Amino acid sequence: MRRNNHQSPSWKHSDRVWVIIVARISTEKQDERSLDDQIAYCRKRLEELTDRPVKIHVIKSQDSGEYLDRVELRQLEDLIESGDWDFVITEDLGRICRRSHALTICEMCEDAETRLIAINDHIDMAEEGWRLCSYFAAFRHEQYNRDTALRIQRSQKNRFLNGGALPRPFWGYLGWDKAKTDSELRKDPEAEELIRETFRRLDDGASFAEIADWFNDLGIPTGPSCRRKKWTTMSIQRLVRNPILKGIRIRNRLVSKRINKTGRRRAELAPQDEWLVREVPHLAYFESAYYDHVIHVVSERNKNIGRPANRDRLSRLGVPRKRTTWPLQHARCGICGHTIWKAGTHGERLACCSGALQYRCWNGMMIQVDNTQKWILGAVLDRIRQCTDFAKVVRERIEQARKENDLSEQRRLYERQITRHQNEVTNLTDAIVVGGDIPELVRQLQKARSALNEATYQLDRIKSQEREAPRALPDAECLYQLVEETMRLVVNEDDQASRLLCRILPRMTLYPVILCDGRAVEVQAEVEFDLSAAASALVGMSVDMPSEVVTVDLFDRPPYVEHAERLGTVEQRGETVVATAKALGMSLTMAAWARRLYRRMQELGIQEPYMRVDMPPARGWRCRRHKHPRYHFEPQKNDVPPEAA
Prior knowledge:
Largest sheet: 5 strands, mixed
Structural class: alpha+beta
Helix content: 40-55%
Number of helices: 20
Shape: flat
Strand order of the largest sheet: 2-1-3-4-5
Radius of gyration: 36 Å
Distance between the termini: 51 Å
């Protein structure tokens, strides 16, 4: 790359000069023809630089120059780092990006020996003073943005104080189509009675969901600026909490704060002394005192709902939704098939069917997350202990898998794949040199390289397996210790342990069950225990073993249920009820319950006292979501629990 205008350039390719032209506009309001104008301007400058044949790759985008996570910017950086390009030409440095990252782009071009030219900023990397010019250009573009923002804020502030800067049209007011100031707006006579009734119901204890259902039943339109055609709790909240209902307009309630890592902005609540307030008494539906009273009542009623106001108390802040405590979002409801979600408040950790939380399932029973983990994992441990021939079966299956698992065929397969992917990489590289659809060729090249790296890794892994000595075969105690350690890690919310349990217990379905005498309703879990996943986790290789289904009580059985069979058969054993009850530490009343329960089991011909229910029971059922007006039973489509990830 030449360093001044008097030196002859040394081109990277003998046949053509490779050039990248960057064009950008900021918003949809700008004319897209400006992109073509920028490209033509750069082509004209290119004609003055060289008369050799050129290969031009154009990168044009429509987004803010402050955004550093744009796809076009990443594409430009990848092309520069490839070191194949002679020029990067743009109208000015701000067309590539703004802020200090523009200097980073210049230095990337310097490292790749690519000559960057920003025409209007007088930046040419063939000149000695290009670095100083780039500093001043980046500073100037940043300052221009700041000055423009201040001018816009000044204009909007003055217009707001004079009645302008109207918000988007919303339901409850008329005259939006021709109004230039708020003095031209007027209240909607048809909406006045509905708004007053809304506040009266809220004051009496109604929820936003009830108001939304009421509006939808009446067929009230959602407003000219609302995309949804149905009222929701959020749209009702926006309507109710709008201070224009008491004759006040507020502006500057939120301010945008730039996230320097990406350049994007986040809205935050501004200090109250920076708010702009304008009184519009002709638009008020209520007196200020009554409006503030209703808002205070609603806020107090809902203050413990949702996330706490103190961000330091947010236990899930910054945590993805899928990284949740096991078995949440893994277990499913046996009634509707929806997943189980966390449903507790800031205290006890509870879980419930997500369908019930959305009024689409009647099974609204809550389960304790901590106890559920203890009961299910304890049942798995007991099942392993009861399987006396488990170690023998595992050993036989592992020996059989080792004999069938011939790695030579897999090694030859990956060797053929590596050869094919190497040829693809070579062909694509030659195609990029010749020219064509560069973005598509680069995408295919990256895909081919990724496949080549994966095949190389798999081949190295197979070779290392061939060199390794066979692992020691596990016994039942090893598996018991593994699950016990996994239990401890799950309680501590370890992500890896949770993923392992999702493989060992791929299916988990929760059902409401009721005692056959109709006394109590509880929750049982039907868990599929995959022995092959457990054995594979031990030995590090695929082992085919059958899976089992285990039924787990997610509750502690009362003593009279636990000993119903023993107390019901005391006569056959020649014992007395009093002596047996005393030996079991039970009262005579509980003994009578146990004997009555056993007789009921004999009448029904069942061995298990708890039976599943497929509709809300008449007795012992505390959940009332199926009584709510919003309830509509809607099972999960394709109600099949997901396979373990």
